[in-house]
Amino acid sequence: MESTAELVEFPLLKQWVDYTYRPCTIPWRFPSDKPHQATPTEILWIELFRKSIPSFRKQAELDSTVTDAPAKAAKFALRYGEILDDMLADPESHGGPPDCILLTRLRDVVLREVGFYDIFRKVKDDENAKALALLEGVIAQADAIKDVGARIDHLVKGVFSGNIFDLGAAQLAEIFESTGSNFQDSFEKLLPRPWVLDDLDIFKQKWICKPWKKAVIFVDNSGSDVVLGVLPFARELLRRGTKVVLAANDMPSINDITYEELVQVISKAKHVTSDGKESFYGVDAQHLMVLNSGSDLPVLDLSHISPELAYAAEDADLVVMEGMGRGIETNLYAQFKCDSLNIGMVKHKEVADFLGGRLYDCVIKFTEAIP
């Protein structure tokens, strides 16, 4: 169900006189740039979004829920390409200047205008089913690691490994089409540390010494990402006494999991014990909550979230932004009243270049709350 409530600001954002929240990480233009002339960075990113059009068109053509899907997919490709052309000529032609939030929103708007609502639904359902079949083994592998620090290392690497399942990146969409996703293979091929942003040791030490009372995790993609990466990570938080809120998208966007889909996934991962309690693979699940974030994009603007999530997050002492869209391309420099963790894999060369890292590098940025 889509949210009809008015969106609000995330209550844990800092509200300092000298701090203004800006979701987008990479500055595409500066005040000195000419207002109706595309900057080199804007041109670079507009062309990056153009590269995604063929994979989106192909996915739309396969949507059996839409009549005349191939013709409508062609219409989408033409219309979105024209919008990108307009922005190259005048970056303010479609509500700009452009950023990653605007370009992703326009892409989804065009898809819906021509008749598509969720072109990745079948892929998401298939990948969720495959990942759920593997979840017990992934959890058992983590539980076999008795040292807490080593187990946290393992679980963090699992988040990175799952996060590579991202059909919004043109190159990864092509790889998925030809080979599918393989969580274990991704785990074994992670780039070695040190990563481009690597606060793993600081984060691990804080977790071991003083576990958080409540964590809000903004989740990213379906399949191996949320099921094999985030859920084992969240289960470890639960096991160590942390209440966990998983926040998922209100509406479909790329292969990101929606609130409705995540509820279904969690219901399949939990079971009721003989004493009537809900268990999540041996861990009490009463403190695991799934909420609608209010977002309808693969990136995250924390000034527009659902009031339900805002209420539930007020007493959280850890915020986790998982995935490239939510935790790297947006919110990497967001400041909070509580501890925060940005965690995800870099899947665009343009982002890697900005950070001074490598393609498929890993980001784990931990920021402690300032009293």
Structural account:
The protein is of the alpha/beta class. The protein folds into two domains: 40-113, AF1104-like (Up-down Bundle), CATH 1.20.1700; 121-367, Uncharacterised protein PF01937, DUF89, domain 3 (Rossmann fold, 3-Layer(aba) Sandwich). The protein has a seven-stranded mixed sheet, with helices on both faces. It has helices at residues 40-51, 53-61, 69-89, 100-113, 121-143, 148-163, 170-179, 183-188, 200-209, 224-239, 259-269, 307-313, 324-329, 349-355, and strands at 197-198, 214-218, 243-248, 271-272, 278-280, 283-284, 288-292, 318-322, 339-345, 362-367. Helix content is 45%, strand content 12%. Helix 5 crosses helix 11 (259-269) and helix 6 (148-163) packs antiparallel against helix 10 (224-239).
What is the strand and helix layout of this fold?
Layout: H1 40-51, H2 53-61, H3 69-89, H4 100-113, H5 121-143, H6 148-163, H7 170-179, H8 183-188, E1 197-198, H9 200-209, E2 214-218, H10 224-239, E3 243-248, H11 259-269, E4 271-272, E5 278-280, E6 283-284, E7 288-292, H12 307-313, E8 318-322, H13 324-329, E9 339-345, H14 349-355, E10 362-367
Parallel strand pairs: 1-10, 2-3, 2-8, 3-7, 8-9
Antiparallel strand pairs: 4-5, 5-6, 9-10
Helix pairs in contact: 1-3, 2-3, 3-4, 5-10, 5-11, 6-9, 6-10
